[in-house]
Structure formats: C-alpha cells, structure tokens
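Extended Data, panel c. Modelled sequence:
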Amino acid sequence: MDISFHYSKPIARYQRAVSLPDWFLSTDYYDKGNYQMSVVHLLKYINPPIPVPDGPDLNITIPHGSVNVTIKLTKEKFSLKVPFLKLTATSQKLPALRQMIEKNFSTLVLGQITMKGDELVFEYEAKTADCEPYKIYSLLDEICYEADNNDDYYIDRFKLEALSVPNLNYFSPTELKQGIDEFKSIINECLQHAEESEAKRFYGMACDALAIAFFRIRYSIFPQGIFGRDVQDAFNGMFTNEAPELIISKTKDKLKKLLSYDEAKIKESLFHPIFLMPIKKRAEIPFIQDKFSGPFKTVSDSFQGKSYQYAATFGIYELYNMMDLYTIPAEVQKGIEYTLEKSSGKDWKTTAELVNAFFTKLMEIQFDENGNIVRGSLDFDNSSSSSSGFKSIFSKITNVFK
C-alpha cells in the first residue's frame, strides 16, 4: 500500500485522574494513628467514579469494569469483598476450581478467592490499624485486576455465572455498528500492510503492522470481557521466541479468526467501562522521553535515510504502544492523536515527516526544578506560541504509584 494507516477517533476511551493531595493526607493520617481517615483519603486519591464519603465509617460499592467492589470500614475493621462467580449444574467445576486455587497461591498475595456453597468471592479483612496505604492500594489493585480480567473467561470457558454485575453502559446501536465496522476495517487494512511487507521480506515492518492492528482495536473500541481477553491473548502470541516468518503467519491467522468472531460476544464486550483502580501506569513527560529515546533515533535515522515507510510504520507502532501501556499527560495524548490524524491515509513521506516532527518536538521539552517548561512546547496546531499551558504538566512526584 502506498498510503499510511488510517486513524479513527475512539468510541470508548479510558481516562484516569488522581488526587495527589489526598495521597499525602492518607500517609499523614496513618503516621498520626488516624487509620480510618487514612483509608478514606486513600480512596479519594484513587479518584473512583463514585464519590467517596468523608467518613470515618464507610459502606460503599464501586464498579470496576464488570465487577462490583464493596468496601466497609469501621474504627476496628476494614473489609473488601468482590462477588465473583457461581457454580451451576452445567459448570465444569474441576478445571475452574483448579485454576482458582492456583491463583490463591500465585497472583493473589493479600486477597483470596473463597468458596461459600456454590458462590466464589474475592475477600479480605484486616484490623483498620493494619491498613497501611501502600498495602491497601496493592490489595485493591490485585483483586480488581484478577476479578475483572477473569470473570468472563470462567463464564465462557467453564460455564459459571456472574454473582454481581454493575449497570454497564453498553454501546448504543449506532456505536455498536460503528465499532464492529471499524474493528473489521482495522484488521483488513493492517493485514494488507503486513502481507505486502512480508512479500518484500520486510519482516520487522510486517510485525509492526500486525501489532498496530491490536493497538488500534483497543484504542478505537476498547473491548472488554471475553472478546477483549481474546484480542489480548492473540497479541501476546506475537512475543514468542520463534522465527519472524512463523510469528507473522500465526498472527495473521489469529486476526483472520477474529474477523469471524461471534458478534453476540462482541456486543457483550463493548461498553463504556468505569474502573475503581487504574488499569494503566502513569507516565510523565521525562519518563516518556526516556522511553522514546531509542525509537526517536530509529525514526530520525530512517527518515534522514529516506526510508519513509519504515520510519512511519515503526513510529506509528511506538505511538500506539505508548497510549496502550500508559496514562499519559493530556498534552502528549493530544500531540500523538494530532500526528496520527494528520498522517491518516497520507503517503509514506508525509507520514514520516509528521511522526519525526512529533518525536523531535517531544524530545526538545525541558523543565526547570519547579516543573515549568523552559524549552520547547507541545503546541502542535500552532494556535499559540506560548508554552504557558504546559507549565503544570510535570510533577516532580512521578512514581507514587502506577
């Protein structure tokens, strides 16, 4: 193909905000022995979609993806419960329970899956005085992740039933049609890019084109449930110690299989989710610059060497990969999306110029000790020559949590 990858605005988007002042209040309260208020402000720091009462006692239920998280807090006790699944007469009990037992001794460190009758629940209890902020954050993180990422898997594979499901905001009929059409278009386009690169024995570019398909699916429609898990599993299969030709062949087969995916399952997996815990790590500009230092050199060298298709394909891969892995500052997100939109369907040279320009502009940014931009800007649309709008982007506190 003589033109670059097309861009489409996301139908569903993951966004996250935190309240750093509440984190410091949480740690201060814990150090002073006010353990209840420490937990309250920890939850306010996480900034869930449902406002956290001012306490000191709590009894709240907050959605995280496709599960409900109930938190109870008194002066004496803290408890966390996530109703998970129910065994039925048609459930494949033995393999399901075997895998859950394995999780209790592997991925779950603090929380546990307990069984009461036919019901399986994630639970944790502790004295409120033992609720150190880092500990409770890690507890919430592991349980929310395991519950939300595995419930649909057990339902689909082992015929279990959900115990409690939030009121999910499913795609409207218009959004659903647009999402399925976009999903199929992305796969077909990226397969064509990959096959043309493969025919020329440009195996690296072919792999990048296939990976871009998965990134664009997640960016565009943000699939959840079993469909989202199967998309992720197909992508993970690219990272094996095999010859690139074999990886390309297997990945193309998986993408073609996704094209015939049961649309009823797709429909169940397309909604606008709400998350209690973050599902991506935070990345501030200095961290992003560090991650992009190698890719920037590759893009720049390829562009200068007039390898426009490689510079464009590799650069687009890196841009989508950054958005896929991290929650990034709004200004950087805007710059990436501006670059992808302006290069959509353009010739390779134009696309390479735009991608190289983005990396160059990002890498020029410098901050003073107060976090103010002293060199460069991220004003991609040239609507203003001032960088004052970016002075508060960088917080020196960049690694409190994810």
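Residues 203 and 351 are 20 Å apart (CA to CA). This feature is highlighted in the accompanying rendering.
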